[in-house]
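Sequence in, structure out. First:
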Amino acid sequence: MVALSPTALEAFFAEDDNSAVVMLNLIRFEPDGGRERYRQYLDLAKPCLARFGAKILFSGDGLPLLTAGQAEQWDAVTVVQYPHRSSFRDMVGDPQYQIAFKVGEAAIADIVLQPLKHFGGLT
């Protein structure tokens, strides 16, 4: 189920908007055709991402975990870079993206969206 937290979004958008942000998507697919629907979502979403200056840095299947403990196994990971936080906000509100989002929503049983920012001084 895809459910964005209004409180978390408000705090995210209130932060400095002068640098790129990377969004880590940890995805668990619906068992009945979720992976295929997610690929359809990506095909529909790519033109929207491009319009807002975003790009997919990586998308791929999760492999078996190498760590012990309470870590969860995810079916796939997608990493997207946005030029600014406002680019993400504007894209999510875009009517064309909303069409793609419905396909993605039907594909996903569970998701974690983790925004990331660059460590200063590292490449």
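Second:
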Amino acid sequence: MRILSIASEVFPLIKTGGLADVAGALPGALAAHGCDVVTMLPGYPVVMQEIARAKAEVEAFQLAPVLGCEARILACELAGLKLFVLDCPQLYDRLGGPYSDSGGHDFSDNWRRFAALSKAGARIAQGAIAGYRPDIVHAHDWQAALTPVYLAASNRPRPRTVLTIHNLAFQGNYPSQVFPELDLPTATWSIEGVEYYGNVGFLKGGLHACDVVTTVSPTYAKEIVTDGGGMGLDGLLRGRGSRFVGIVNGIDTTFWNPETDPAIAANYSATDIRPRIHDKRAIEGEFGLRREDGPIFAVVSRLTWQKGLDLVAGICSEIVSRGIRLVVVGSGEAMIEGAFQAAHSRHPDRVGVRIGYDEPLSHRVQAGADAILVPSRFEPCGLTQLYGLRYGCIPVVAKVGGLADTVVDANHAAVAAGAATGVIFSPPDEASLLAAVDRTLELYEDAGVWRNMQAAAMKSDVSWEKSARIYAGLYRDLMKE
């Protein structure tokens, strides 16, 4: 099966969050199930630089102007991925990240930048590149969500389409004034098209137009068809019925592997976890923490309200008072960043903070910390807890979305059976989080129980194998139609 995957970010080329990890890891997992995946992404400067640095063999295909912008497709293989890169300097050759400038402000023409990605993807899906026509188009999140809209609006034969929601909070809603610039038929300005309360809804339009909607965990799929969790799109999602499914994410277990990870101080395994103490000592040194035998809890995340990191900041002093040390890696909302920096100032040898994204450091923290805090108010899937499981860094998670689907709570029965892999709490508030911290500390102080939990966590299947099989089956079913 030929699969065209379209995403705004793909690890290891460009990453701001879990979407990139999924888009980068899923193609390799699908290959074992007869899927030949080509991933399409924008030609951001870092992507173009990596192509040049790697001296990748590139085949270029000129496209007709896309939404008024000159563009071409660069086909190459890079970082183990087959790629179509949309080379359109007018839209993507600029300073900053994939969505915002160096000051953190969203680019004002993001609607055009990602409509162009979708438009170009639709053209490729219908044969714009000689000799290539996919069986399935798999679009990811709002940035690629207009792809099925463009395909459905065409009177030409088209492949079947899948749209995955990675986070319903980000929908790509723009003023109605942009609609005439999207090169869509007038008929798509309707409640069954892209019109959304008088605005243009990229994600909303894609949810109507695609053949199947997926999201990244079964529990999140249940949450977002409710009035409270659907963020205005619950009715539409309920209307998709059996055409809306939750498939839990996995991780690249080759890249995230404590037995071989070159980023960490000492390698270890579930059967011999003893060398992990060297990773803990390395974290103490890197963050300037007091060296002692007590536990280190960690946060590796975007520092946002959604992720519940204001809750951690709010109980920082209580955490420290229990003899726990805390390390924080991430960036996000200024108020939360400031709260953690203030906590570091109050407790310089007990709270370590690193503002910013650092991939190798995230590996070292997962390898050296004892527990990872993920107190999200909502969480489509979450990958941080999967990394924690893989590295024996016990997840302490809110009972929401994919967190609830991937962690086995350390209740009495699960501990007795040796099945516990983490601590789950509810609701996501300061009191419940602090109670979960206390429960985790109690478990940590029983060395035998803690080692059993680490071993069970590290043996958890967090790979893409099972989910890739489900995706491949879904693609096959669509092709039969």
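Remark: The longest strand covers residues 69-78.
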